[in-house]
Amino acid sequence: MCEEDGQAFRPIAGGGMPDGLIESPVRFPGDGIVNRGVLIYPEAPGPYPGVMIHPGAGGMTVRVVEIGRQVARKGYASLVWDLYSSVPESAMPADMSFPAMVPIFRELDDGSHLISMGGAFDYLASLPMVQGDRIAVMGFCTPFPLLFACQNPRLRGCISFYNVLRYGEANKADRAVQPIDRVANLWCPWQGHYGEDDAGIPLEQLKELDELGRTFEKRMEQHIYPGCGHGFAEPGGPNYNEKGAETAWNRTFEFLERQLRS
After folding, report:
1. If you average pLDDT over residues 2-20, what whole number do you get?
2. Between residues 55 and 175, which one has the greater pLDDT?
3. What is the C-alpha separation between 248 and 239, in angstroms, rounded?
4. What is the sign of the dihedral through the CA atoms of 80, 221, 3 and 74?
5. Distance of CA 27 to CAs 39, 67, 81, 186, 205, Å?
6. Is the peptide bond preceding residue 143 cis, with omega within 30 degrees of 0?
7. What is the rounded CA–CA span in Å between residue 213 and residue 210?
8. Residue 104 φ/ψ, nearest 5 degrees
C-alpha cells in the first residue's frame, strides 16, 4: 500500500478553474452507494477520449487531482474516482494521512469496489464530451485498475503504477485468486511502471507477471526503474524521483496516444 500523505481534494472556491480546463466535483451511482469523483476536461470543444484515474491508498488527494489535470491538459477527459466513496465524507480524515487511511483501506471489499468502478466507467462513457468507446484506466498502488481491466472488455487500455500484485494478510479481499493470477483474463493492452527498490513488490513477482503475460499471450508492457521506490512517479510525494517519473509519464502518454487515438 502506498505510503503517501496529502490533503483531501476540496472544490475550488468561487467556481474557479485551472487554466484551459473545466473541472467539477461529480456524483454517480455505485454498488448501493453514491460514487464521488472529480471530472476534468479541456475547455476546447470535444469529444475527448476518457481516462479513469484510480488513486492509491491515500485517496482522492490534491496531488492525485493534479495528475488528473495533467492528463486533461494532454487532451483527455479525466475522471478521478474517490475509492473511498463507500465511506461517508464526514468519516474521512481531513489530512488523508497514511496512518489514518490504513484501517479504512483494509476494509474495502474488492467485489463491491469493482462494481462501483463499473459505475464510474459507465458514467464517464455516458458524457457528451467523452468518446465512450475510447476509455482507459490508470491507477496507483492498489490492484484494482488491473483487476478491472480483467473484467471489463470495453476498456482500451490499463496503466498500473506500482500496483500491488498480491494481497496483504490484513486486507479484506478474496485471496482465492490473487491479482497476479487474473492476468489470464486481461482484456486490453496493459502498461506497468515499477520501482526497482519497491520493497512491497519484489522483482520476483514482476518476473512472474511478465511470464504470465507471455504464457497467455497478453499485450503487456512492463517497465522497471532503477533507484526508484514505491510512489516514485507522483510529484510532491515523499518518494518522488524526477528522472524516473519523467520517463514513466512520457511512456504513459505515448501509450494513451496509441490506445485511445489510433
Report:
1. 51
2. 55
3. 14
4. negative
5. 10, 20, 10, 28, 37
6. no
7. 5
8. -70, -45
C-alpha cell at 257: 496516444
Counted residue by residue, the chain has a size of: 262
Sorted by where each starts, the structural domains of the chain and their CATH numbers stand as 20-261 (3.40.50.1820)
The cell numbers describing 80, all together, are 478521478
64-68: list long-range contacts, CB under 8 Å, 24+ apart: 64/6, 64/9, 64/140, 64/234, 65/9, 65/38, 65/40, 66/235, 66/236, 67/234, 68/38, 68/40
Looking at residue 127, its amino acid is L
Residue pLDDT, tens place only, 110-157: 888 899 999 999 999 999 999 999 999 999 998 999 999 999 999 999
| CB-based contact 189:254 (threshold 8 Å) | no
As beta bridge partners, residue 77 has 50
Q: What is the value of pTM for the model shown?
A: 0.90
d(CA 81, CA 31): 14
CA angle in degrees (0–180, nearest 5) for 24-30-32? 130
Q: Tell me, what's the pLDDT at 1?
A: 45
Dihedral (CA of 131, 71, 101, 242) sign: positive
